[in-house]
Design goal:
44% strand, 15 strands, mainly beta, 1 helix
């Protein structure tokens, strides 16, 4: 755990409490090899305040277990090299964000939408206090990263992540980051299921 993150229960970690200007992260203790396929199922909880809430959660792959910038950085900003799947709940107009909650796949700790590899993809309101199931699947042969949220496919990205993002290094850590700024929400991540190519 890093920054403001702390354990809620056996399954869930609170990345940010409902306070302004904090960032938190939770990383799996062991790295994964992106030359192997995997499936991850977690749940995201993005708080209960819609218009007054911020900023979102990013699911991150990074060679180290760090916490990035708070506020619009969502705990992901500044992490280089990295790949982030962001679930952004606040419109930062200067970053090209749409007005609704959205998903983007972002490289290297960047949060401006002009840098996105895919997105922004509009989502229904996520700041409803509910657990939103997130399923992430990686197929190294097809070089496809599939993102499902609330039982529906939201994004399918095809790209040579190992070489274009991580300069040929396939072994990275995975985790989730979140942050608040002037507006804020509690934001949690709950681990459900991890399946790697070699088994559980």
């Amino acid at each position: 755990l890093g920054g403001s993150a702390y354990i809620l229960d056996e399954e869930c970690i609170r990345l940010t409490p409902d306070v302004p200007y904090v960032s938190g992260s939770a990383w799996h203790k062991d790295p994964i090899d992106l030359n192997q396929g995997f499936e991850m199922v977690i749940c995201l909880v993005l708080g209960e305040k819609n218009l007054l809430g911020a900023d979102g959660i990013v699911f991150v792959f990074h060679p180290q277990k760090l916490t990035g910038y708070r506020g619009e950085g969502m705990g992901f900003g500044g992490l280089v090299p990295s790949l982030g799947i962001e679930f952004d709940t606040y419109q930062n107009q200067h970053l090209g964000d749409p007005s609704s909650d959205h998903l983007s796949i972002m490289p290297n700790g960047r949060t401006h939408q002009v840098q996105s590899l895919i997105g922004p993809i509009l989502l229904p309101n996520l700041e409803d206090g509910a657990k939103h199931p997130l399923r992430i699947l990686w197929d190294p042969e097809l070089q496809q990263l599939e993102i499902q949220l609330d039982g529906a496919q939201r994004a399918l990205y095809t790209g040579d992540i190992v070489n274009t993002i991580f300069s040929g290094n396939s072994v990275v850590y995975w985790g989730a980051t979140a942050a608040t700024g002037r507006k804020y929400n509690f934001q949690d991540v709950c681990i459900k299921r991890l399946v790697y190519a070699g088994g559980r």
